[in-house]
Hints:
By secondary structure, the chain is an alpha/beta fold. 36% of the residues lie in helices and 20% in strands.
Amino acid sequence: MSSPFSQPASRLSAPIDLARVRALFANPALVSESGFLRREIAARMHERLALVRIAPARVLDAGCGEGMDLAALQKRFPQATLFGLDASPAMLKQAKLQQQAARSATSRLLQQWLHAGLSRDAGARLLSGNFSQLPIAREAVDVVWSNLALHWHPQPDQVFVEWRRVLRTDGLLMFSCFGPDTFKEIRAAFAAVDREPHTLPFVDMHDFGDMLVNAGFSTPVMDMESLTVTYGSVDKLFADVRAWGGNPLDSRRRSLLGRRAWQHVGQALEQNRRADGTIPLTFEVIYGHAFRPAPRTMASGESIIRFDLPKK
């Protein structure tokens, strides 16, 4: 018998080359240039998380990168065991180094606190893996957290199915990712010189909501906001775009863009320069959270009927 959450054939959100994604994130120093926005979005996610009453035993940070969000999650859930997962070995190595540095800096304080009954924090367990094939057992975590990482996977619907698999009943999924208006200025600038895709065609918020329902999540809540980051030069703008992961599309242009074409792109972006002398770049940020509901059928296929008995 098929599951009530059986999926139709997965559709690609975009022809993303996952090997290319890993290569683009192989330089943590370059990626760190985009950390300011990751921290800001993480803070806004924590504001939303504060509205949810939950005391998880295990928390997974899916797409943890260099581990930027792990410390804040551990602070919010001090009794929880944290897992950080990423597909980039270089980013996981950086996360490990940061954890080691943090433990070294506080080791003497911890030694004092240990005598007061506090346990030693071993840090998050770091795992290497693909979002759609997690190296984690079924129903093993209470919270899946993912900050600005989902848009790098070509099959987000399958990622949601996998995230639901590892969540326990009533477990919480909370994520953020980029939406369709992200980098719209860059798309417009390149449109004048060729028809090749130079940025990801990010998934719409409403499509993510449908995917969550189809994957078996309950009460999904989606919202979005548009943020504008400004730059003093075109070169700095493109440096940040590269820090965000560049262009991992398998359908991307393989030949070099000529000097004249680059000049046209730069001129198009310069035309957006504001009265204060800055060049804007748009980020549409999508936020979502949902819960894994209690099962409606048993493994044998029999329905589960629940009765809410009146209180005496």
